[in-house]
Every structure is written in structure tokens, then in C-alpha cells.
Write a structure and sequence with these properties.
Residues 108-164 form a coiled coil. InterPro entries: CCNB1IP1 (IPR042448). This protein has helices spanning 32-39, 67-72, 79-193, and strands at residues 20-24, 29-31, 58-62, 200-205, 208-213. By secondary structure, the protein is mainly alpha-helical. The strands form 2 sheets. Strands 2-1-3 form a 3-stranded antiparallel β-sheet, with helices on one face. The chain has a two-stranded antiparallel ribbon with strand order 4-5.
């Protein structure tokens, strides 16, 4: 027994047929649901739009007949009639297989075209992505160079600031030293100016004259 099943020719259905089905004189076949729904509404083939007005233009069949049906359906018919019926049945089957092959080939071509388009889109996206990565890499390298340059400038500024701070500290130290020296000299000068010249009396030690401070007798 063949494992290949016929397919419902209704384009929105396309399911395997393995029980009851509807066949038409224009060599199309439909599942029980779509056949009943379509042919109860109008006698026209939904595939080729052929009008099916004759009594046997549309027939409901059982795709899995029992043994008694197989034994009796062709009984009494002449061999040439049986052969003619068989040839027509085989012709119907071959037509369905040919149409299915055409449909599958067409679907395969459409899928292949979609695949090629997707492939092109993926290659384009990959190119754009690689280009973006290259641009971002260059930006990153430029940013790193700028950061390194800025670091060096900052380091130079820090070194100059440290040197200026050292010089400032030296200047401040000298200033404080000079300030203290000036204050000390000022104090000494002030004390010297407060002693009257009359109080300076000569005193001789070992033949030398030396001025000494006379005691204050106020």
C-alpha cells in the first residue's frame, strides 16, 4: 500500500486526505469539510472555476473502503470496462501527483528566492555590522590616544604645579626669615636709639678706651 496521500486541493487547506473526500470531473479533490462547505453553496470547482452541474461531476468517496466494497464495486463489469475505470483512476492519481510536484517545485523556488534574499540581507547586515565595528574601533583608538594625551598634559601640569608649590614654599620661607630678621633688627635699633649719648662714659681697661653704659640714676 502506498504511503503517499493525496492533498486537499483547496489552497487554504492543503491537508492530507485519508478518509472521506470529494472528487470532481475536472480532476480535483477536496477534504470532506471543504468539499461539503463549498459544493453545498455552489456547484463550481474552487480550483479552476469549472461549473459542475451534471449528476456525477461531484462525487463523495471513501478513500479507505472496506473489503466488501472492494469485492463488489466492479463485479459484473466487463474486463475492458474495469481496465478503463482503472486507467481513469490511475490517470486521476497521476494528475494529482503532477500538480503536487508543480506546487512543491513552485514553493521550493519561492523558498529558495526568499532564502537568497535573506542571505543577501544577512550579508548586507554583516557588512554594515563589520563597518560599524571598524568605525567604533577607530573611535575607541582615537579616544584612547586623546585620553593618553590628556593624561600626559595633566601629568605635566601636576609636575609644574608641584615645582611652583616648591618655589612658593621657598619664597615663603625666605620671606618669613627676612621678616624675622627685619623685626629683630628693628628691635635692636629701637633699643639703641632709646639710650642717651650722655650716659655713655669712657672706661679704660688695660690701656684701651671702651664705652660702657652708665647706670641710670633717675
Amino acid at each position: 500500500m502506498s504511503e503517499i496521500n493525496l492533498i486537499c486541493n483547496y489552497k487554504k487547506c492543503r491537508k492530507d486526505l485519508n478518509s472521506f473526500a470529494w472528487v470532481t470531473s475536472c480532476s480535483h479533490i477536496f477534504c470532506d469539510y471543504d468539499g461539503s462547505r463549498t459544493f453545498n453553496r455552489e456547484k463550481k470547482c474552487p480550483c479552476c472555476n469549472e461549473v459542475l452541474n451534471r449528476r456525477l461531476d461531484i462525487v463523495q468517496i471513501n478513500l479507505n473502503p472496506d473489503e466488501s466494497f472492494k469485492s463488489m464495486i466492479l463485479c459484473g463489469l466487463r474486463p475492458e470496462v474495469v481496465m478503463d475505470i482503472s486507467l481513469r483512476a490511475v490517470s486521476f492519481w497521476n494528475y494529482q501527483m503532477t500538480q503536487e510536484k508543480i506546487i512543491q517545485t513552485s514553493s521550493m523556488k519561492r523558498l529558495q528566492a526568499k532564502f537568497e534574499q535573506v542571505k543577501i540581507n544577512m550579508e548586507t547586515m554583516e557588512y554594515q555590522f563589520q563597518k560599524h565595528i571598524l568605525i567604533e574601533t577607530k573611535k575607541s583608538e582615537s579616544a584612547l590616544k586623546d585620553a593618553e594625551l590628556q593624561r600626559r598634559k595633566t601629568q605635566e601640569i601636576e609636575e609644574k604645579l608641584i615645582e611652583k608649590s616648591r618655589i612658593l614654599h621657598q619664597v615663603q620661607s625666605k620671606y618669613e626669615s627676612l621678616k624675622l630678621q627685619l623685626i629683630s633688627n628693628t628691635i635692636k635699633s629701637t633699643k639703641t636709639e632709646q639710650i642717651p649719648m650722655a650716659q655713655l662714659q669712657p672706661k679704660t681697661f688695660e690701656g684701651q678706651n671702651e664705652f660702657v653704659f652708665a647706670p641710670n640714676v633717675d
